[in-house]
Amino acid sequence: MKIIFLQILTSCFVSFSLGQIVRSPLSNHYTGAVTYSKKFADAFSFSGNQAALGNLKNIDAGLYGEKRFGLKALSNYHGVIGIPLKNAGVGANMYYSGDADFNETQAGLAYGILLASNISIGTQVNFNQIRISGYGAASTVNFELGALFALSNKVTMGLHVYNPVGGKFGKTNTEKFASIYKAGVGYDASENFFVSAEIAKEENLPVNINAVMQYNFNKHFLARGGVSSAIANYFLGVGILWGSMRLDVISSYHQQLGFSPSLMMVFNFSETAEK
Fold first, then answer.
1. How far apart are the C-alpha atoms of 125 and 241, rounded to whole Å?
2. The domain 2-268 belongs to what CATH superfamily?
3. Under DSSP, is residue 167 helix (H, G, I), strand (E, B) or coil?
4. DSSP letter at 179?
5. Contact 38, 249 (CB under 8 A)
């Protein structure tokens, strides 16, 4: 009973803080950290801004799993795949959180296109569902939009809006997704170092600042860390790269609720992937 109560409480907390019905991983900003980077972009880049699909060069895929606060019943799973087209790309996003008694899912289809050498835009449509054992399920559809601007070879700026309209749950449509607006910038300082900052504003909530940095020690080892100010959440991960695959071991920390361990795998199906 305590676990179910904590699930519902956490669901409400993260829904209000991130503007999504699924309980996005606490280190969600870890997976989307390289959205504003040209050099370090990976399979999860478009999950932060769908415009990143416009710059996709190879088929990329990723899997992420998190055991929130060390509790199995609060686990989160995230899978992505991106497929390049001519000056464009399509992607699929899938989130799942919870267990058999209480769970939330979100499935999204995304498309991004390169309008010019330095401008790309993208959009994603999401199907969302909440299911509670003994009470049935409720579902709804919403969408999001994004744009990326390459201000130089090293600096990329982006804008993103989640759920500008619609997205209501329940028979009376009284439960609505919050709208959230983001603006961010990334700086590829060198071949090994990247830093980004993002400002997010959700309706009825204070401004949130997310900051991330990544350093590649060599072609086989990297470290990435950051902070999200609104919920005082810190995260740190190390990645090991070999061939077309990368494995990241990550931990995020919440001052009141403790640690959330997670793993992430990224696959780049490039024919020229380094061995």
1. 32
2. Outer membrane protein transport protein (OMPP1/FadL/TodX) (2.40.160.60)
3. coil
4. P
5. no
